[in-house]
């Protein structure tokens, strides 16, 4: 994960340098960050992304289109300094009996997309730039998903933070495994409207 954080930091720096070369922005990971619990002067930005996970006990890997990444940003105009805190929710293996939570692995392309979206949001929220509605670039799903979202093993679900936007699920997921479909059907209902 350490290396991974460095990638996020580096890409973020490159993107901020392009738009605000004279300003200092930092990105840090904060595992204690809570969605919708904001300190004064901070803005939140949440994205639902695609990532894959690997179990450190059995090496099984899986993919999820419901990986929540969120940021709290703060901009100090007087100091020309900005701060972004980030948290990514983990998931754990479905097959192991006592699996540890695993952090998601993102492709470089998806890290760039997520951070591009973040920078556009910073320009809008902190600098009041970009008057058009910001269009979000979705992350790339690089392989097909199996089954519905596994809420029992999703850190965000377990903490009550996973009520995400309707996701595009595959048909197989809603046809099979009736046990865990209530969320799925809700998603379908929303996307049909
Ligand atoms: Zn496992
Ligand atoms: Zn969840």
TrEMBL record:
The keyword Repeat does not apply. Keywords: Membrane, Metal-binding, Receptor, Transmembrane, Transmembrane helix, Zinc, Zinc-finger. GO terms for molecular function: olfactory receptor binding; zinc ion binding. GO terms for cellular component: cytoplasm; membrane. Its main location: membrane. It comes from the Eukaryota. Pfam families: Zn_ribbon_3CxxC (PF13695). The keyword Transmembrane applies. InterPro entries: R-trans_p (IPR026096), ZAR1/RTP1-5-like_Znf-3CxxC (IPR027377). Signal peptide: none annotated. GO terms for biological process: detection of chemical stimulus involved in sensory perception of bitter taste; protein insertion into membrane; protein targeting to membrane. Residues 48-160 form the 3CxxC-type domain. It is a single-pass membrane protein. It is found in: Membrane. PANTHER family: RECEPTOR TRANSPORTING PROTEIN (PTHR14402), RECEPTOR-TRANSPORTING PROTEIN 3 (PTHR14402:SF9). This is Receptor-transporting protein 3. It comes from Trichechus manatus latirostris. The gene is RTP3.
